[in-house]
UniProtKB/TrEMBL annotation:
Lineage: Bacteria, Pseudomonadati, Pseudomonadota, Betaproteobacteria, Burkholderiales
PANTHER family listed in its UniProt record: ALCOHOL DEHYDROGENASE CYTOCHROME C SUBUNIT (PTHR35008:SF8), BLL4482 PROTEIN-RELATED (PTHR35008)
Residue ranges of domain Cytochrome c in the record: 382-471
Catalysed reaction equations from the record: nitric oxide + Fe(III)-[cytochrome c] + H2O = Fe(II)-[cytochrome c] + nitrite + 2 H(+)
Stated name of the protein: Copper-containing nitrite reductase
A Pfam family that the UniProt record links to this protein: Cytochrom_C
Cofactors that this protein relies on: Cu(+); Cu(2+)
UniProt keywords, alphabetically: Copper, Heme, Iron, Metal-binding, Oxidoreductase, Repeat, Signal
Length: 499
């Protein structure tokens, strides 16, 4: 009996085990088949090799109605590049550019990611993609020594625009050297069509030398820890998006800019001077804000801004923490071509001298000089007095009341070797403006002075005579007749050249 009982007990235990096993297997199967939000099933079709682009270009829209397996191959390259004119820096890059290559996939795609570290690299690197759901965003799985390749796979569950960056210690140093970029995860239906898409990313850089100090500049860890950047830049270099590298569009076209902030430290106050964003997908998510003037982009964050070009001109992209724009390099240009629309924007309609409560005493000197010019009794002293009054209301905002200018922005007129070399060429600059590089007292300036067409010949002559006879300049005199002759001449192709 005991043996029979034992057999029966074993049979019951076996049956229970089979039932429990079946139940557990069913539960596991149901769990495996339950789709996560953003999971649209297994990949379909043949694997796709992702098209990666260098900034400011963006890969074409995905234009797919199904999830796919997308293979991304990204190479780390450490290379010396120009950060400002005459200034070089050793950048650590994804894809050989700062920011790194733009990656574009579809929500629900399975991404097979290959990170390759060039054999010439001196450091190991990895990648943390903020669009990855998983520990470290892929960092632990992608740690790659020089001359090696790593691979990991993730499913792009969440739509949005996401930053990626290196997360190898010291993390801040790797990011500060340019190791960041953007990955766009499109919603299944894609983004609304626009005429132009651009890729712009801000970063703060910490060099041992000061802003624009020449030569190869090493990284300065102390400045980085103290958050005292030498440069704040769009796309890794001063002037990266200006001149012949400016962004372009035409009147009536829609522009979408994917804007990221690699940091490592600063928050960006992104603004396009003269434009209002029709829509902003702020912080890279799905919420949309309309009619935005300036949008905040945190370090390690991104946004998508969209607007329509209404009138032609050069629109300046800036970090509106404005000293970063004019004194650390955070500027870019969007050039809009097309027909003017005076109903939307008239342009300048009036520019006349205004001296406020200083008008009465100062304008008397201008009146006296005008009368003396008519009577033929005008003296240099008359011109100096009249020029002082006119300079205060016309020129002092940029060049300052003492003629010292603003270092690196507006050149000095005081003790100016530029004026001393050829005093007469100042007439050309006042009448025709100046756009280009000049060197004054050993320092380079690359700003824009518009032509002072609102000033008559007497006023130009008096201002320049005042400048030539002030602040230890060489002296001299400019007459209205001199100005008249220069005004009659065609504007030179470039107002002045360096000396």
């Amino acid at each position: 009996m005991s043996r029979l009982h034992t057999v029966r007990s074993l049979m019951r235990a076996g049956l229970i085990s089979v039932v429990l096993g079946a139940l557990l297997a069913g539960t596991a199967a149901r769990a495996a088949s339950a789709k996560l939000p953003g999971d649209f099933g297994p990949p379909r079709g043949e694997p796709i090799h992702a098209v990666l682009t260098s900034p400011p270009l963006v890969p074409p829209p995905v234009n797919r109605t199904y999830p796919a397996k997308v293979i991304v191959e990204l190479e780390v390259v450490e290379k010396e590049m120009q950060i400002s004119e005459g200034v070089s820096y050793t950048f650590w890059t994804f894809g050989g550019t700062v920011p790194g290559s733009f990656i574009r996939v579809r929500q629900g795609d399975t991404v097979e990611f290959h990170l390759k570290n060039h054999p010439s690299s001196k450091m190991p690197h990895n990648i943390d993609l903020h669009g990855v759901t998983g520990p470290g965003g892929g960092a632990a799985s992608s740690f790659t020594a020089p001359g090696h390749e790593s691979q990991f796979t993730f499913k792009a569950l969440n739509e949005g625009i996401y930053v990626y960056h290196c997360a190898t210690a010291p993390v801040g140093m790797h990011i500060a050297n340019g190791m960041y970029g953007l990955i766009l995860v499109e919603p299944p239906e894609g983004l609304p069509k626009v005429d132009h898409e651009y890729y712009v990313m801000q970063g703060d850089f910490y060099t041992a030398g000061k802003y624009r100090e020449k030569g190869l500049q090493p990284f300065d860890m102390e400045k980085a820890i103290d958050e005292r950047p030498s440069y704040v830049l769009f796309n890794g270099a001063e002037g990266a998006l200006t001149g012949d590298k400016a962004l372009h569009a035409k009147v009536g076209e829609t522009v979408r800019i994917f804007v990221g902030n690699g940091g490592p430290n600063l928050v960006s106050s992104f603004h396009v001077i003269g434009a209002i964003f029709d829509q902003v997908r702020y912080e890279g998510g799905t919420n949309v804000q309309k009619n935005v003037q300036t949008t905040l982009i945190p370090a390690g964050g991104a946004a998508v801004v969209k607007f329509t070009a209404r009138v032609p001109g050069s629109y300046v992209l800036v970090d509106h923490s404005i000293f970063r724009a004019f004194n650390k390099g955070a500027m870019a240009i969007l050039k809009i071509d097309g027909a003017e629309n005076k109903l939307v924007y008239s342009g300048k309609e009036l520019d006349s001298v205004y001296l406020g409560d200083r008008a009465a005493p100062n304008m008397s000197a201008v009146t006296k000089a005008t009368q003396a010019s008519v009577s033929g009794t005008l003296t240099v002293q008359d011109q100096v007095q009249a020029g002082r009054a006119l300079f205060a209301g016309t020129c002092s905002v940029c060049h300052q009341g003492n003629g010292a200018g603003l270092p690196g922005v507006f050149p000095p007129l005081a003790k100016s070797d530029f004026l001393a070399a050829d005093p007469k060429r100042a007439m050309n600059i006042v009448l025709h403006g100046l756009n280009g590089k000049i060197k004054v007292n050993g320092q380079e300036y690359d700003s824009v002075m518009p032509p002072m067409t609102q000033l008559n010949d007497d006023e130009v002559a008096n201002i320049l005579t005042y400048v030539l006879n002030s602040w230890d300049n060489p002296g001299g005199r400019v007459s209205a007749e001199d100005v008249k002759k220069v005004r009659a001449q065609p504007a030179p192709a470039k107002a002045v050249a360096e000396h």
